[in-house]
Amino acid sequence: MNDMTPIAKLTLKDWESDQEVRWCPGCGDYAILKAVQRTMVDLGSDPAKTVFVSGIGCSSRFPYYMASYGFHTIHGRAPAFATGIKLANPELDVWLVTGDGDGMSIGGNHTMHVIRRNLNCQIMLFNNEIYGLTKGQYSPTSRVGTNSPTSPLGSVDRPASPCAFALGAGGRFIARGFDVSKELSGVLKAAHAHQGAAFVEIFQNCIVYNKDRFEEFAVAKGAEASQLWLKNGEPMLFGSEKSGGIKGIALDAEKLVLKVVDVVAKSDGTPDWQAAGVIVHDVTNRSVAHMLVELPFGPFPMALGVIYDDPQPSFEVALLGQDAVARQGKSANLAKLLAKGQTWTVSGTVAPEDQGPLSNV
Fold first, then answer.
1. Do both 74 and 191 map to the same domain?
2. 199-222 residue pLDDT tens
């Protein structure tokens, strides 16, 4: 098939590999897998031009289950492989799959640099706040007090925030979702549309070692009061009359922090968010993005959706463009390259008395 040959409309089955899906029954990874496969169908993606790259962990089995190209690499090093793949063939659509242990611990350095460099790829970090594959040790994102084989008295580590980490690394696209959310596919499509490194944190339920860790917000019942789904150009509203009233997020101008405010209805029944001072979401506002990813759940709802989206030229475009300029007016000549600089020719034989200890090797 050449690039001019039209691709027939693919279905969900076309993105399902022949491998048996082997996660624990009830694992949130199943829902994420289906969401990604549906996203591929909706995007009209070509499996022959799509690559899923993973490290080590439960999430890293992902490439086996996608009917596309894939690499199951080594612990924490998926970003390095993804970078090489994209530079070798910029036309490939590269998806990087990692977990809170793989991507935030041993792979934290690699994750930082693929984001900082702004490689054009989608980074999905599955966050279940635990090491699942290695049997339930606490991870970099585990909450203070988490009981595990490596913290039997409760973890005293302060957890890392993947989205705050990505922003701090210079990320240009930051988003959040969770495994069973109907909105997850839309978040992934937005990530795919972004030109550059698109970082998506996906809260994922580990049914065995950290069951229902996100049940406070990742459930259908009461979701309107616990979830703040951000949409560019729309006011930050959440809640309903059934959940205690409509509320919104406003800026405390004196303290320069976000706060929750009550929103009353107008005479026509629509929420009067302007009068309450509710702010409108601007995906290019980096300062507010930092505030949103740091909001403590409880006093605030969980900020979900596209939090920040402000693209800049991607790494491979800049690097390959630089290479193209450097090669202008030049032709490839390996022999000339080898002969450049200090070269010499050895001829004749070496006298026995001048031979070194390795001369006969």
1. yes
2. 999 999 999 999 999 999 998 787
